[in-house]
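Journal club prep — side note

Before the paper discussion, L.F. wants everyone to see what a predicted structure for a comparable chain looks like in token form. Sequence:
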Amino acid sequence: MSAMPLRAPQARPSSKPAWRPRLRLVRAPAQARARLPFLLLCVAILGGAMLGALALNTSMAMTAYTISERQVELAQLTQTEQLLAERVEQMSSPAQLAAAATRLGMVPAEGLSYIHLEDGTITGPAAELVAERQD
């Protein structure tokens, strides 16, 4: 057997304490900022953006309806203008002009007559008609 004791010898407590870290005062953590104002700001920005988009969309829809109405009005006015142009063309034909002149009591000229600007005399078949009216 050996000369070793059965139990290991225990260390004697020394009179010097073992090294310990120096303690210091720890302040309480800073209060976390309230999240409610931030959330309200985010909701307000989001709501404002959505209202702006709604207003823009409404305005664009109103403009589209106005454009559609103006296009219909333009088509109607174009059709009216074409009808009036056709009517003017029909009324400007020589046959229509002669019929309108006859209804007004006009008679066709018998020949060409001329006015001389230097002395103001009229030559041709109309000279006799002018002379009759002046009498």
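L.F.'s comment for the group: The first strand starts at residue 114 and ends at 116. Keep this in mind when we get to the figures.
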